[in-house]
Write a structure and sequence with these properties.
The chain is mainly beta. It contains three helices and 27 strands. It has a single domain, classed as Neuraminidase. The protein is globular. This is KIB1-4 beta-propeller domain-containing protein.
């Protein structure tokens, strides 16, 4: 494994993202600090980072994005809203119940007619204090059964800016098993999930008029990832390629404690044959994925100094670049000032505007 040293230039802090820097690939955004109050925007092609302290990103988690629109969640609660990185516009969302947010997908920017916002959540249990005070031994025979009930995953969805309340559909339990929510993505403005237990590829189409979600089975076939049967740790991603194909990226880990990215398999989905086809080449395309957010994106390498046939993978503070043809991996620490304490990392496309 080759260790690369980059020349990095640190720019002064600002409260706005560096969207005036022209580039044709996504930015690596790393948020760290006790309350996520510090952000670093790293440009892969320039090998430079830009320090920022953007008030709107303080105490927030980035849950999803579409173009420059981000779905932000408070680190203290399930409160979420949409925020535009460029214009600073904000769209308030209907309140969610107190819950654990399992997944969040934004199909398109809010001004797009096909925009849908979908949450998969587990509602938190609530306890009635008065019932606890009045409880007696005769209730104990029922307590075990009641405590064993776990709230099933529930869908909440809306079109941002148009609804005062979320539509709710309790179909999560019929799709997922053992609490496994699958691998999610947006493909051609539609919502897809590959379930981990039944290994199905499903398309979810929310209808805001009826308040229901149509779930369509696309395929029962799972990618053949049995290349390394002795590898115990792996992670999967599904994403839309810049050439409008649906990709499945499977990453194997190896080394001490299985903590080092070792090899990748890439599959394209054939909608005519309804099957995943392994590909040994992605051509003039670069794939960008993040272990923290379990999301990814791609871009063309034409006209850039990005490496074609490559997968840019970020885990913690480290950036790995894997070549699909040579199976070689390079490693770098692009932003050494970022805290080691599990920074949140995202690949975000930002449009170019005049400074």
């Amino acid at each position: 494994m080759e260790l690369e040293e980059f020349n990095k230039e640190k720019y002064g802090e600002s409260d706005r993202p560096p969207f005036y820097i022209q580039q044709q690939h996504p930015w690596l955004v790393m948020c760290d600090g006790d309350v996520r109050h510090k952000q670093t925007f790293f440009s892969v092609s320039q090998n430079q980072y830009y320090l920022r302290r953007i008030p709107e990103l303080k105490e927030k988690l980035i849950r999803a994005h579409a173009d420059e629109w981000l779905v932000l969640q408070s680190i203290y609660s399930s409160e979420c809203y949409l925020w535009n990185l460029i214009s600073n516009d904000k769209i308030q969302l209907p309140p969610l119940p107190e819950c654990t947010i399992l997944e969040c997908l934004l199909s398109a920017p809010p001004n797009d007619p096909e925009c849908q916002l979908l949450f998969l959540i587990e509602e938190n249990e609530t306890t009635n204090d008065s019932d606890d005070e009045n409880s007696n031994d005769s209730d104990d025979e029922y307590s075990d059964d009641e405590n064993s009930n776990v709230n099933p995953p529930t869908f909440y969805f809306c079109k941002p800016g148009y609804h005062e309340e979320f539509h709710k559909q309790e179909d999560g339990h019929s799709i997922f098993e053992n609490g496994s929510s699958g691998i999610w993505t947006v493909f051609k403005k539609k919502l897809y999930v590959s379930t981990l237990q039944t290994r199905r590829l499903l398309c979810l189409e929310p209808d805001n008029d009826s308040g229901t979600i149509t779930i369509t089975l696309i395929s029962n076939e799972y990618p053949d990832v049995r290349k390394y049967l002795d590898t115990t740790r792996f992670v999967n991603f599904i994403l839309q390629s810049c050439d409008d194909t649906l990709l499945y990226v499977h990453l194997f880990f190896n080394g001490k404690s299985h903590g080092i990215p070792y090899d990748f398999l890439v599959f394209r989905f054939d909608f005519a044959r309804k099957s995943w086809i392994e590909t040994e080449s992605i051509g003039e395309v670069a794939i960008f994925i993040s272990y923290y957010s379990s999301t990814g994106t791609t871009c063309s390498t034409k006209g850039t100094n990005l490496k074609k046939e490559s997968i840019y993978f970020i885990e913690g503070r480290y950036l790995y670049v894997y070549n699909l043809i040579t199976h070689s991996i390079s490693l770098s620490l692009p932003c050494p000032h970022v805290s080691k304490k599990n920074p949140s990392t995202h690949w975000l496309p930002l449009p170019c505007q005049k400074k």
